[in-house]
Amino acid sequence: MSALRISVLDQAPVPDGFTAAQALDNSLSLAQHVDKLGYTRLWYSEHHAMPLLAGSAPEILITRAAAATQRIRVGSGGIMLPHYAALKVAEVFSTLATMFPDRIDLGLGRAPGGGQLEAFALRRNRQGPVPDDFPQQLAELRAYLHPERWALHADVKGPHPFSKIHVAPQASIAPQIWLLGSSMWSSVTAAAEGLPYAFAHFFAGQGTRQAIEHYRRNFQPSDALSAPNAAIAIGVICADTQEEADHLHASVRLLQRRIRMDDRRPVATPEAALLELNEKATAPNPLFGFTAGSLDQPETEFPRYVVGTPNKVRDELLRISRELELDELIVNTITHSHEARLRSYTLLAEAMSL
Question: Which of 9, 34, 109, 28 is closest to 347 using CA atoms?
């Protein structure tokens, strides 16, 4: 068995020509598939107002997947905490942890999960500037899930007023909290709070090494974790031949270009993607200066998507994990064909001896 844990991030991609309902059915199929293959955990992302991705409510997808699987941990990758009251998040995930003991992860992020308009629509209070209170939210959430932590918030005036609140149901095994991000801010916070940390390398690969190394060097043990536990989320497309893998990858290459143009259309077929990639990109706003090359994947130290045959993908993932001293890799695979996505995860599981 591989010493390196391998997990899955599912963004519930919607293939062109299919409905969001079909995409969600694909997600359930994938959950059952990777559960049988031996992957460690399955996370669902939170994105809003995107025809490209059907995963706007990860807590609902978690419930469905956990009920339909046997052993895999299921969680959020992640819940965008600034949109919500900490108490409500605690209640939802404590309920999940009660229903599925020792199988629920609560990955937290602070990104909007959408554009500026969606972020404004999701704001708890639309008057005045956006509050920068993520650390306070995080501390409050952890105390709801672990009531003994309220003692940390006592001051000269007495205990924290919310310490009187009893989260019901209070799970016997609380969900495992992870801090997620794609910047140094998340690395600094995860290290200071003593939490497991996952870096979204597939999304922003420029600062991966810096973030992971800072986290490891500066980690402070906590009641949640005694030693650093680091992972990166990385794109993977695995196929029987390099030619097939490269062909499937065209859909992702176009998706990445479109996202930079604020184009949220569903996942194109490889054939349609290749045609569009060969066209000169045009700016959605002529006042916004850019070059066509800037809309493609930027060069990074490590590839954001590892594409190829099982042996090639395995060797590259092991190299990256050794260089960054990772405990876990969280694999994100997007293809237009659901069958190709299932096949990619099968080939990877076999190559990694899960």
Answer: 34
Looking at the chain, which runs of residues are DSSP E strands?
A: 5-10, 41-44, 73-80, 104-109, 176-181, 197-199, 230-238, 305-308, 328-332
301-305 contacts: CB < 8 A, separation 24 or more? 301/205, 301/208, 301/209, 302/201, 302/205, 302/208, 302/209, 302/234, 303/205, 304/201, 304/202, 304/203, 304/205, 304/234, 304/235, 305/202, 305/234, 305/235, 305/236, 305/237, 305/249, 305/252
Determine contact, residues 40/8, Cβ cutoff 8 Å. no
d(CA 126, CA 39): 41
Using CA atoms, how far apart are residues 122 and 142, in angstroms rounded to an integer?
A: 22
Q: Tell me: the pLDDT tens digits for 104-116?
A: 999 999 887 677 7
Strands (E), 224-286: 230-238
Superfamily (CATH) of domain 5-241+306-351: Luciferase-like domain (3.20.20.30)
d(CA 36, CA 346): 10
What is the pLDDT at residue 203?
A: 87
Secondary-structure percent of the chain, ordered helix, strand, coil, rounded to 5 = 45, 15, 40
Interatomic CA distance for residues 16 and 18, integer angstroms = 6
Question: pTM above the 0.85 mark?
Answer: yes
Instruction: Tell me the pLDDT tens digit for each residue of 93-141.
Output: 999 999 999 999 999 998 876 777 777 888 777 777 777 889 999 999 9
Q: Shortest CA distance to 94 belongs to which of 183, 194, 5, 168?
A: 168
Distances (CA, A) of 95 to 15, 98, 104, 218: 32, 5, 10, 33
> Distance (Å, rounded) from C-alpha 192 to C-alpha 181?
15
Q: If you average pLDDT over residues 242-269, what whole number do you get?
A: 94
Given CA atoms 226, 178, 29, 337 in this order, what sign does their dihedral have?
Answer: negative
Is it the case that residue 272 has pLDDT exceeding 70? Answer: yes
Is-contact 30 10, C-beta < 8 A?
yes
